Amino acid sequence: MAQHTVYFPDAFLTQMREAMPSTLSFDDFLAACQRPLRRSIRVNTLKISVADFLQLTAPYGWTLTPIPWCEEGFWIERDNEDALPLGSTAEHLSGLFYIQEASSMLPVAALFADDNAPQRVMDVAAAPGSKTTQIAARMNNEGAILANEFSASRVKVLHANISRCGISNVALTHFDGRVFGAAVPEM
Prior knowledge:
The protein is an alpha/beta fold. It is about 35% helix and about 20% strand. The chain is built from seven helices and seven strands. Belongs to the class I-like SAM-binding methyltransferase superfamily. RsmB/NOP family.
């Protein structure tokens, strides 16, 4: 595997050195930034339970490691990474799972922590739809989600992912997110 070197601006390095607790190693932090992210997926529980998904994919030779902060999220390793691309599998195309970075699953996990169950959610920059579809699954397609995307080219991708995942509680809009400011109460 080719080694990639990440460029860090001096201002970033200075800021991180100042912000990082002395109990942590700055060199370890920089080394971690050089490593590629582990590939991860999220089971779409609107279409299949986690248990049924694990049973369905067991014969595929996928190693699925649970993501601690997302009960339907898994880091994935495949025996043959050169096989059919993950995004071209029947399971992905039919919306049984979503390819989503583990870190992207964290905001939704935080939103629904401690038995919090919002009935209305606005995602102001929603494309490509990873968090929007995760929120819809956590809401069990109930309540209402306003999924807004300013970029016209990204609206199509957002719509495709919402449709593929079987989401029915989303209103899709295409505005500059600033238009919502006056209508949304401050918390």
